[in-house]
Amino acid sequence: MSGDSTTNATDTVRLTLAQAIVRWLASQYITIDGSEQRLFGGGFGIFGHGNVPCLGEGLYQYREELPLYRGQNEQSMGFAAVAYAKYHLRQRMMFCTASAGPGTANLLTASALAHANRLPMLMLCGDTFITRLPDPVLQQLENFNDPTFGVNDAFKPVTRYWDRICHPAQIIQSLPAAIATMLDPADCGPAFLGLPQDVQGWTYDYPVVFFEKKVHRIRRNGPDDNEIQDAASLLSGATRPMIIAGGGVQYSKAVTELTAFAEKYQIPVVETIAGRANLESTHALNTGPLGVTGSDSANAIAEQADVILAVGTRLQDFTTGSWTAFSKDAQFISLNAARHDASKHRSLPIVADAKLGIEALDAALDSGKDSYKTPAEWTSLASEERVKWDKYVAMNVAHGNRPNSYAQAIGVVNELCDPADRVVAAAGGLPAEVTANWRTLKTGTVDVEFGFSCMGYEIAGGWGARIAQSENQPDQDTIVFTGDGSYLMLNSDLYSSVLSDKKLIVLVLDNGGFAVINKLQNNTGNESFNNLIKDCPTVSKPFAVDFEAHAKAMGANAETVQNPAELGEAFKRAKAADKSSVIVMQVDAFEGWTTEGHTWWEVGTPQVSDSEKVRAAHQDWESSREKQRRGV
Question: Are residues 232 and 192 part of one domain?
């Protein structure tokens, strides 16, 4: 911590609660690679009566230090804040402010997304009057049995830190506690402060030292020696080892260490969805993405592996194939900063920072007379499987006399983009298609939000990522893949990107509705119903949305293409443009899906039905359950 050494510890300054919060946030810094930067890149805000008179006044005073981006929807501005933090590997963050009532309630989904993805976001939200003198007030949700219980309490299960500020002095404790939570590698997630409308304007004589410049550093917790020795003993006996590289590898900045570890011991590496782009696609040990939306290569190795080192992953069902992707006899070593994630499914835990844990495990493996080496035939098998998968991907993304597909669009962009461009996708069919078919050109360039699988994240997340990217890599592009369903669900931050001069390249791949869920519906024996627009019984006259006209109406460049070849030319024009561009292409709702690389995924199917197809699908689905590990 540094500050003015002449400040007397007894000096005070009278400020409103709102003014004090903003002043304190502006004094927070972080050291990143030896350079001091503001911890908060700014914030996203939509004002209402619950936050504009007081918090708005405080933010105006610091509008240069803490730029406030005006979102179009509270949920989407929360998504943008999450994407900003992800780009900065959880080392920098944004705050979000919303008014009391529905404005704040709109942030619930974004908070859940941040919680699921272990990403920081500070929410400063209006609350009802602490005095209750004017109750019931506009947008207040009254609880008849507990007057302290309101909409803001709904954030408790989807935040890592929650507080309602009932007196201005409370922030002296609450603000540092919230920041400590959001910067903790194990507890990282969203923090929520409820700010009653009257308390926001109340004054307090704050100690001046409270506002001194504070420089934060991310803590790296070292591993326990016993856990390292146990893990080294288990791994040294492996004949078919495998590494699962999760998103935590990037957050720890441990990509170099993990790569060197894998190379030294010649251990095949597979990636989770969050860990996509830990290794470049051409790396000899990159065996591909794992799981339900993975690759034949990674899944073939996973089901034969005897010892699995899982680094920085929470092992969600799309990674594990609902725990059918591995041999029941496989032993897990889970290296994770969070105890909760390190102890899953009979894992031998290493509760530690990924970088320090890998270094310690390397030292332990290399300490004996004969350093451990993976049997050459195992590494060769992984390499052969990856070669086969690469051939499939090349065929899958190729275009010609075939229906337009997601994979083809991905292939075109992959071929023409700059290696450092950032790719953003979420929910629907595109996370699977991007995960399976995208060939990583540079580490850390892929953001596929599949922790909470949130439709609508794509454009908002792209906007937040572009704000972050423009701070460090202004000459690179942020590329958004979205389906028509997600675009219609939440598209307004395309307008935000134009207003704020934060260029996006958005590919709208239109398949006529929620096509991937229609595919799941059909695969479970059900008839198409209420997913594709043409199959909605309440739709009297289906018609195609003019996405090009819609995007142009929000100020973006836009064009519609008929095929992947035209898409390539349009993409070149979008790259050369100086503002957001939208490229629209129709894709087939039934043909062209990536058919290989999938593990089993547990989905609830009807045990009884009048439909023979549904009954048959249930039996077929359940036939793979015998492979499922039972968590012991």
Answer: no
- Among positive and negative, which fits the CA dihedral 527, 533, 539, 540? negative
Q: Got the DSSP string for 321-339?
A: TTTTSS-TT-EEEEEESSH
Q: What is d(CA 491, CA 453) in angstroms, rounded to the nearest whole number?
A: 17
Candidates 306, 335, 292, 352; CA nearest to 602 is 292
pLDDT tens digit sequence for 106-120:
999 999 999 999 999
Q: Based on the domain organization, do 426 and 564 belong to the same domain?
A: yes
CA distances (Å), origin 472, targets 64, 88, 475, 476:
18, 10, 9, 9
| pLDDT tier for residue 3 given thresholds of 50, 70 and 90 | very low
Rg of the chain over CA atoms, in angstroms? 25
Is 333 in the same domain as 411?
no
The beta strands (E) that lie in 217-258 are given as 241-245
Element (H, E) at 22: helix 17-26
Element holding 457 (H helix, E strand): helix 457-472
- Tell how many helices (H) and how many strands (E) occur in the chain: 24, 23
Q: Count Cβ atoms within 10 A of the Cβ of residue 304 and give its class: 0-12 exposed, 13-18 middle, 19 or more buried.
A: middle
| 168 and 260 both lie in a single domain | no
Question: Nearest 5°: CA angle at 213, between 209 and 216?
Answer: 120
User: Residue 538: which domain range?
Assistant: 398-586
Strands 122-127 and 93-98 come out as: parallel
Quick check: pTM over 0.90? yes
Please count the structural domains in the chain: 3
Q: How confident is the model at residue 631 (pLDDT cuts 50, 70, 90)?
A: low
Residues 209 and 65 in one domain: yes
Query: What's 108's domain CATH number?
Result: 3.40.50.970
Beta bridge partners of 511: none
Helix (H) or strand (E) holding 424: strand 422-426
